[in-house]
Design brief:
mainly alpha, Growth Hormone, Chain: A, single chain, 11 helices
Length: 308
């Protein structure tokens, strides 16, 4: 749950900026750099086409559709809709959290370089190193925070990562102009560490641990879709408008606000970590994962059957 998304931070944000700056020095223009950096994506697309296989449950569903059949999920004799995932608290909370988390990612990746160049007068090599540090931090954060959450709980891990992501962003914003790279690289590392550390938890672990197995894919896709629409599309545009009006510190402070919203939303998670639950005097039941109006109607343990 952590390694694959963490590789995005390690390769895309960690190695990518350094490689891109080096290629810029070789070619003298960004245009050929963009073409060269698109090659790995094309290669991965071809590899996925021939080597990636659908999960057994999805393969079964696709095969049934081709035969004109439909997979129907029943619970206690009643047909269950995939939208029933919205009756689960953690799915809704993760959907809300997707907005500030994705806002943090795309504001930080979109404006950090301009911030370092325009505010701190860094050259492109220095910018590449600072961004790479945040990418390395993000990779380590994704790998570590999932393990930490096994012990302190998913809810507390989300609260801590949101809080410390916001603090790291505030430190970046408050450092005076002229701060050296060797100093600024430290909060950049932790900015990535705690910001990216939320991903395996809010987007994967918490939703899928809260719903029946049949709904796991939908429980992840809804937060993903909302996050891409509002967090990745709308918030960077807003950050750009604010940067034009108030300067490049505005987007940095937006990431601080995003961290605060992650903390606020995460207060409403229902705990799912097995080790944490084992230490709790009163453990949340499956009913506790549902909003009150839906309790007693949709529970885990649904079964599937095919109907023509």
């Amino acid at each position: 749950m952590s390694f694959i998304p963490g590789s995005f931070m390690l390769i895309g944000v960690g190695v990518g900026p350094i490689l891109a700056v080096w290629l810029l020095g070789v070619f003298g223009s960004w245009r050929p750099v963009f073409y060269i950096l698109s090659i790995p994506a094309a290669i991965l697309g071809v590899i996925a086409l021939f080597m990636m296989h659908e999960a057994p449950s999805m393969a079964e569903t696709i095969a049934m559709r081709k035969k004109g059949e439909k997979k129907v999920v029943y619970d206690q004799g009643q047909k269950v809709s995939l939208l029933d995932v919205l009756k689960y608290k953690n799915v809704v909370v993760s959907t809300l959290n997707s907005i500030p988390v994705m806002a943090w990612l795309w504001i930080y990746t979109g404006f950090a370089s301009s911030f370092l160049v325009e505010v701190h007068s860094f050259n492109m090599d220095q910018v590449g190193i600072a961004i790479a540090a945040s990418g390395l931090g993000g990779f380590i954060g994704m790998m570590i925070m999932g393990s930490i959450s096994d012990h302190i709980g998913r809810r507390m891990a989300m609260i801590l990562t949101g809080l410390l992501c916001g603090v790291s962003g505030a430190v970046v914003a408050l450092f005076p102009v002229g701060t050296s790279l060797s100093v600024l690289i430290i909060p950049f590392f932790f900015w990535g560490f705690f910001g990216a550390g939320t991903y395996p938890l809010y987007l994967g672990t918490l939703p899928t641990e809260s719903v029946p197995n049949e709904f796991a894919g939908t429980a992840v896709s809804i937060p993903t879709g909302v996050g891409e629409l509002l967090g990745a599309a709308v918030m960077p545009a807003l950050a750009g408008a604010l940067a034009d009006r108030f300067g490049l510190l505005a987007p940095v402070w937006m990431t601080v606000i995003a961290g605060g919203l992650i903390v606020l939303f995460s207060l409403f998670y229902v705990e799912t970590a097995p080790k944490k639950l084992a230490r709790m005097a009163t453990q949340p039941t499956r009913e506790d994962h549902l909003f009150i109006p839906f309790r007693g109607k949709v529970v885990a343990g649904s079964v599937s059957e095919a109907k023509p």
